[in-house]
Amino acid sequence: MTTTCKNIGALVSGGGSNLQAVLDAIARGEIDGRVTLVISDNPDAGGLARARAVGAETAVILPKDYPSRADFSRALAKKLQQAGVELVLMAGFMRVTTAELTAPFRGRILNIHPSLIPSFCGPGFYGHHVHEAVLEYGAKVSGCTVHFVEEEVDGGPIILQRTVPVLDDDTPDTLAARILIEEHKAYPEAVRLFCAGRLKLQGRRVIIAPEK
């Protein structure tokens, strides 16, 4: 994986704060790329407004308009390919996709998850469900993970992880807020490394090449 990235696409369902963190890093000149397309399954997603603010194309693709999850995933892939997208970011996208999306973009789709994978991940672990599970289990450390997307939910190779302590008086809200700060650092950094051609897959391991 040595090709640099120029055209970035993003999939969002909500406010898009992680997308904004990437957009801000691009504006600062830290990422060799630009967000050219943002797709949402929610016409009211705040992430669409963030995309329009930087002149990116936006699109709404609704699962209900397709007979199956595979057809929905195929529609996403087609729109991304038509826009010449080289890297796809899942930025709070609340839909499970299938091989119809992951196969044509294998090694070129990133996601950020609010736990330290392989803990507290997989089907059913999203949003506050993750933080509630962390607190119930009594974990002392949590954090976020940026990983490549494959067919298995949260099962792709890990790129970066950042940690936070779990405090005795934490609630799901306070833990989520602390982790979100780290998400906003980790996601732009992973995108920067990808676009600089510095990520190399060796089996399940992601090797980060030194900066030239």
List the helices and strands and how they pair.
Blueprint: E1 7-12, H1 17-27, E2 34-40, H2 46-53, E3 57-60, H3 69-82, E4 87-90, H4 99-102, E5 109-113, H5 128-137, E6 141-148, E7 158-165, H6 172-195, E8 199-202, E9 205-208
Helix pairs in contact: 1-6, 5-6
| Helical percentage | 25-40%
Oligomerization: single chain
CATH superfamily: Formyl transferase, N-terminal domain
Counting helices, strands and paired strands, the structural category is alpha/beta
Biggest sheet statistics: 7 strands, mixed
Question: What would you say the CATH architecture is?
Answer: 3-Layer(aba) Sandwich
DSSP helical segment count = 6
Q: What is the helix/strand order?
A: EHEHEHEHEHEEHEE
Mean pLDDT: 95
> Rg from C-alpha positions?
16 Å
Amino-to-carboxy terminus distance: 16 Å
What is the domain total for the residues?
Answer: 1
Spatial strand order of the main sheet = 3-2-1-4-5-6-7
**Unreliable spans:** none
Number of strands: 9
Q: Return the CATH topology.
A: Rossmann fold
In what range is the share of β-strand residues? Answer: 15-25%
Please give the CATH class. Answer: Alpha Beta
Anisotropy-based shape: globular
